Please model this.
Amino acid sequence: MNVICILCDTPFSPTSSQKRRLRKHPFRIFLCPECDQRIAQQTKQRLSQSVPKQETDHSLDTRKLSNLDRRN
Ligand SMILES: [Zn+2]
Model:
C-alpha cells in the first residue's frame, strides 16, 4: 500500500501508525518521511525560538478530560 506525499508527490509506504489512521480515514493526506522530518525540524526551530504559549491551553484540556471521566 502506497500513500502519496502532499508536498513532493512522492509515493511512499506509510508507517504502521499511519496505516492505522489510513484505515479509519482513507482520504487522509500524509507526508513522506522526508517532508515529515523537514517540517518537524522547522517546527522544533520555531518552538525553540518562541516562548511556548499553549501550555495553559493544554492544562485546560486535561482538566476538561478529567471532568468527563468523573461524569462517566
Ligand atoms: Zn514529501
